[in-house]
Amino acid sequence: MLNIVIFGAPGSGKGTQSARIVEKYGINHISTGDVLRAEIKKGTELGQIAKSYIDQGQLLPDELIINILASTLDSFKDSKGVIFDGFPRTIAQAEALKAMLAERGQQVSIMLDLDVPEDELMTRLIKRGQESGRADDNEETIKKRLVVYHSQTSPLIDWYKNEGQYQHINGLGTMEGIFAEIAEAIDKI
What we know:
Helices cover 59% and strands 14% of the residues.
């Protein structure tokens, strides 16, 4: 099984590069953001809870996310692997993901860290908000999301380095150039 964690600040290109990885390697894609937005759109109880956190630029409780991911992962039949996009975001979530995969006889194969400077992230997210109408892509919320990212999420870099699964990816450049670096890292596994 090829299980990939794609990592990076909001606006680093995780969704774009995930789609390319899915196409090339034939694995499934789990985007916590997409799963949660679908729940919000359906108006489910989970969606309403998620929306209250997202609107404030906060992360959702770990147990809630783990249960959603386990259910989504188990729904894939004859899967060659999964790319986790937007998860884990904390060390506690990384440990929970490791345990969840171990229960299924699997593990994370590689963690890809898309590294993009903060000024570029801000530019990308504001543009995305203008083009897509996503309510959480406004300057105030973006700043909050980046603070949360740096304080709670960036410690994962050292955690995955200690696990021997970390791979730095330069997130600046052409989409093709960035993907070539990603594919080279995956092909070495």
